[in-house]
């Protein structure tokens, strides 16, 4: 078993906080960009013109 500190991590472009690898992302880690559904939704809302 790996320690949490040994897991790969990324920085979320929306909230700019680090997040670590999760087992549910094991097959698609390269495609994961956001730390949560909330950040993903906030990104798409900010991309829309007012």
From TrEMBL:
InterPro entries: UCP037205 (IPR017136). Pfam families: DUF2256. PANTHER family: DUF2256 DOMAIN-CONTAINING PROTEIN, GSL3115 PROTEIN. This is DUF2256 domain-containing protein. It comes from SAR92 clade bacterium H455.
């Amino acid at each position: 078993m790996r320690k949490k500190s040994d897991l790969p991590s990324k920085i979320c472009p929306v909230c700019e906080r680090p997040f670590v690898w999760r087992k549910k992302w094991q097959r698609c880690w390269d495609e994961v960009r956001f730390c949560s559904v909330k950040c993903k939704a906030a990104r798409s809302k900010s991309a829309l013109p007012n």
